[in-house]
Design goal:
The structure holds 2 protein chains of 2 kinds. Chain A is of the alpha/beta class. Chain A has 2 domains: 121 residues, Roll (Urease, subunit C, domain 1); 295 residues, TIM Barrel (Alpha-Beta Barrel). In chain A, the strands form 2 sheets. In chain A, strands 1, 2, 3, 4, 5, 14, 15 and 16 form an 8-stranded mixed β-sheet that branches. Chain A starts with a helix and ends in an 8-residue tail after the last helix. In chain A, 50% of the residues are buried. Chain B is an alpha/beta fold. Chain B folds into 2 domains: 93 residues, Roll (Urease, subunit C, domain 1); 297 residues, Metal-dependent hydrolases (TIM Barrel, Alpha-Beta Barrel). Chain B is 34% helix and 20% strand. Chain B contains 15 helices and 16 strands. In chain B, strands 1, 2, 3, 4, 5, 14, 15 and 16 form an 8-stranded mixed β-sheet that branches. The chains are: A alpha/beta, B alpha/beta. At the A-B interface, helix 10 and helix 13 of A face helix 3, helix 9, helix 10, helix 11 and helix 14 of B.
Chain lengths: 438, 475
């Protein structure tokens, strides 16, 4: 290390030390055991609405959902006049990876390099991010936390928002691979490249991705052949990157492609059709409504994370709000994400917009619950109020899409979460203090 | 052509043409500030300053609300709109916007009080249409936050597609932008290697300029007196000139209370600092913009009569907002501070009604207090509360018809009126809402990259300054 590097290293250490204290989130420990939530309207998602219902929670699981149960031996939570929903899932965030977006040392979402299938959001997911309690007390209990750079950004994790380690929080540590396809168009008004250059660079970039996938498929076949019958074969060398691609090319986990513009969506559909055996999910999908039929035909589910985006300049202002409804109407499976970090808590309001502008409340609830659970292969654990699923749910005093409602109690995997966060602690400390300064 | 010019000269056409041209320009300006008459029947009227009125009519005549009551008669020439089952609310005011600014930051000096947004207004910006669709009728178009004392702002009515002159809120008080904390210390200290690099420096930049401005004023007045005396006597030694300084003139106007200060600020310490400085210079009417940590000094703000204009829930996008809370507005309100909720964003401005509703989730404010934060409170902060911000007889006809209660996520702004003229109607909304179509911009390909990525503009206050910073940081 040179002197300068040493000084930089020391500075970074100090900053990190500072951030560790800054992030320590002191809330009470959750309660864990047997709970009966009674008297509430249960929004089961998969089995309609049960009025004056009962939910029994035993340990991590929901053991009963219905309208009549013996609650003796359970701690009763009277939720008369309240509503119970399965925990909301935000399908597209950087939560846990980024603490303060303008401070680079707190940004772990973007690794260097073009192809990083082996890097995992799971690894850098900070369980003590101050934004996690802020998020979960809003009823958003689970998020996709996704990396963001290069052509292959890495693996996104499906994370519950309670726990002391990524291991205890992960519903799926490797929920999906994040892939960015090149765009066949200009990148923006400042893009000075000629049409010819754009085309050339697009084709080169796409070829690099195609070659990489071919290599990954070859590696997978070679490894599988060896594993199935090693006798008489020389053991191939392991490659950590390509090893990480095996579950992708096998179709075990889906590939999330971030794509928003009409042309890009069409190009991406065409490209995915050539990738045999792989599964795909589109993210962003801002102009999906323009090509809703094509998307429906492709069978590719969409994580719409663009409700709060202003659209292509001249479009009618409602298009981003109408987009999920129009996609749903065409037959696309829709999940909703915020694309946010510190304000993932607004996911229900994004869904509320979608509901108001055509999606309808029932389908909008699905877009935050069972749909993402199915897309990421977690529907046996999350996404609805059903016996045998994780007790990941919340009680609200009204419609959770309404900013005016209160989320009163959150459960994550059976943990009765303290309804506390740094925002609430600051409120309690500063609401009533006398002037101490002239 | 020559003979034509001769003809003009011969009959003094030039003067006539000039007069004609002036007349046309004046007429265009007048048309842009046109006033309308409309009778809105049978809605639930949210007056803000009084009770909500069920099944009530509002009559706007020539841009002014003239009657509020039952069974009002439609005067000849007025439009009539049925609002049965709907809500009628005053147009929303946004006390912090860069929505249609052509340029935002004059970022080459820490103090640029002399520049204004006056000529930096784009009346055709699509953002205006998006804001109208969100029920907004008045914005405070501000200079950015690169400088400790930035430029003067413009209070605008959203007369989409009019002219620069047509957009002005006539006779609104002058305003000016101040900025504390990371932005000016980053741009000037870190970016250009000049003070301020710290919050200590920010204070002294303000004090230094105010002192210089006061010295200048005294010297200038002495010089003008001496000059007048010299001119009168016509002999002796002429006094050494003290030339006019527009920057100092504006600073003196601030000290003299002629300009409302709107100060970009985040941390509690810098808020206290500015209140101390302002007390020393006798400055009284000011609003802290953003004020993410204002809740920590709410009693001091109340004591000094300072106002705040905050985000509903934005935090953690930079370090100086890391220790903030979505309960900020509620704490300020409970402490008696006049607070508004602003957007500072072309995206948030589309749903300020829901940003206000968040104060009910975060702090259980009353619906009326929540709505005040996007109507009468920002009107107070811009000094236009005698004309807009509530539905009262004698106030401007800036009203919005909502499909349901405006704080509900399920409600949609259906019609937006400015001075009794309808500028937005969801029912008549076209697919292509551009007013000026620029053939050089192919929207299919060439949209703003940041919009594609997130749609959010956490730092629109720093527009125009980033380019400067990238330039200077390289050196």
């Amino acid at each position: 290390m040179t002197m300068k590097k040493q000084i930089n290293f020391i500075i970074v250490c100090f900053l990190l030390a500072g951030f560790q204290t800054a992030e320590a989130q002191i809330t009470d420990k959750p309660e864990f055991g047997k709970f009966a939530i009674t008297g509430a309207t249960l929004h089961t998602v998969t089995n309609g609405i049960i009025n004056n219902g009962v939910i029994l929670i035993d340990g991590k699981e929901i053991t009963y959902v219905g309208d009549n149960a013996n609650t003796s031996g359970y701690t009763e939570i009277d939720a008369s006049g309240k509503h119970v929903y399965p925990g909301f899932i935000d399908s597209w965030t950087r939560l846990g990876l980024v603490e303060v977006s303008s401070v680079p040392v707190t940004n772990d979402a973007s690794e260097l390099g073009r192809f990083n299938p082996h890097v995992r959001a799971f690894t850098a997911f900070n369980p003590h991010s101050a934004a996690i309690p802020v998020t979960r007390v809003s009823g958003v209990t689970t998020v996709i936390s996704a990396p963001s750079s290069g052509s292959i950004s890495g693996k996104a994790g499906l994370m519950n928002l309670w726990g002391y380690s990524p291991d205890s929080m992960a519903v799926a540590g490797n929920a999906a691979l994040v892939l960015n396809l090149p765009s066949p168009g200009k990148r923006g008004w400042w893009d000075q490249r000629s049409e010819k250059e754009i085309k050339k660079q697009y084709e080169e970039s796409l070829k690099r991705i195609n070659d990489y996938l071919d290599k990954a498929r070859f590696y997978n076949e070679m490894m599988t052949a060896y594993e199935e019958n090693p006798r008489g074969k020389e053991q191939p060398d392991m490659d950590i990157e390509l090893e990480a691609m095996r579950e992708v090319v096998n179709g075990d986990i889906p590939v999330i492609i971030s794509v928003s513009r009409e042309k890009d969506i069409l190009a991406a559909i065409e490209w995915t059709e050539k990738q045999e055996g792989m599964r795909f999910v589109f993210e962003g999908v801002q102009e999906g409504w323009r090509v809703a039929e094509e998307l429906a035909e492709s069978g590719i589910p969409c994580l719409v994370s663009t409700l709060y985006n202003t659209t292509r300049g001249y479009d009618n202002y409602q298009r981003p709000y109408q987009n999920p409804g129009l996609l749903h109407e065409a037959g696309v499976k829709v999940a909703i994400g915020t694309g946010d970090t510190e304000n993932v808590r607004n996911a229900p309001f994004h869904a509320g917009y979608a509901a108001t502008y055509g999606l309808g409340t029932e389908a909008a609830v699905k877009a935050l619950t069972i749909n993402p659970a199915e897309i990421f292969g977690a529907a046996d654990e999350l996404g609805s109020l059903e016996e045998g699923k994780q007790a990941t749910l919340f009680i609200s005093d009204g419609d959770p899409f309404e900013p005016m409602s209160q989320i009163e109690q959150v459960f994550i995997e059976g943990n009765k979460i303290p309804m506390d966060s740094r925002h609430i602690q600051l409120y309690q400390e500063f609401l009533d203090r006398d002037a101490v300064n002239d | 052509m020559v003979s034509f010019m001769n003809l003009i000269k011969s009959i003094n056409m030039k003067r006539i043409l000039t007069t004609l041209l002036l007349l046309i320009v004046t007429a265009a300006g007048a048309k842009a500030q046109e006033k309308g008459s409309v009778l809105i029947k049978n809605g639930t009227v949210i007056t803000i300053t009084g009770d909500d009125l069920a099944e009530t009519d509002i009559l706007i005549e020539d841009g002014i609300i003239t009657k509020i009551g039952k069974d009002l008669r439609k005067p000849r020439g007025a439009e009539e709109v049925d609002a049965t089952g709907k809500y009628v609310m005053p147009g929303i005011l946004d006390a912090h916007s860069h929505l249609n600014g052509v340029d935002i930051n004059e970022a080459r000096n820490p103090v640029t009080a002399e520049v204004t947004m006056e000529e930096s207004v784009n009346p055709n910006a699509l953002g205006i249409y998006h804001a109208l669709a969100g029920g907004v009728t008045t914005i405070h178009l501000m200079h950015g936050s690169a400088n400790v004392i930035g430029g003067q702002g413009e209070t605008l009515k959203l007369r989409y597609g009019s002219t620069q002159e047509g957009m002005r809120f006539k006779d609104a008080p002058r305003t000016i932008k101040f900025a504390l904390g990371e932005n000016p210390t980053r741009v000037h200290g870190q970016g250009s290697g000049i003070q301020p690099r710290t919050r200590m420096g920010v204070e002294q930049v303000i004090r230094g300029y105010f002192n210089d401005a006061q010295d200048y004023k005294r010297n200038r007045e002495e010089y003008l007196e001496a000059k007048a005396e010299y001119d009168r006597r016509g002999k002796g030694t002429p006094p050494v000139p003290v030339p006019q300084n527009l920057r100092y003139d504006v600073l003196n106007d601030i000290i003299d209370g002629k300009i409302l200060v709107h100060c970009h600020s985040y941390r509690a310490d810098e808020i206290l600092m500015l209140m101390r400085v302002f007390k020393d210079f006798g400055i009284e009417n000011y609003t802290f913009q953003h004020g993410n940590e204002a809740f920590k000094v709410a009693p001091e703000l109340a004591k000094n009569g300072a106002h705040t204009s905050v985000f509903a829930d934005w935090w953690a996008y930079k370090f100086e907002v890391y220790y903030s809370t979505a309960y900020n507005a509620a704490i300020l309100n409970e402490n008696g501070v006049v607070n508004s909720i602003n957007s500072d964003s072309g995206e948030l401005i589309r749903h300020l009604n829901h940003e206000a509703a968040k104060t009910i989730r975060y702090g259980k404010l009353s619906q009326n207090d929540a709505l005040r934060m996007i109507t009468i409170n920002p009107a107070v902060q811009l000094g236009v509360d005698d004309r807009v911000g509530s539905i009262e007889e004698g106030k401007h006809g800036d009203v919005v018809i909502w499909s349901g209660h405006p704080l509900s996520i399920y409600s949609i702004a259906e019609k937006t009126y400015v001075d009794g003229i309808k500028y937005f109607d969801r029912g008549e909304d076209a697919d292509d809402m551009r007013i000026d179509i620029n053939p050089n911009v192919d929207f299919d390909d060439a949209r703003n990259y940041n919009e594609i990525i997130s749609g959010r503009e956490h730092d629109s206050c720093m527009k125009d300054a980033f380019i400067l910073m990238e330039e200077t940081l390289q050196h």
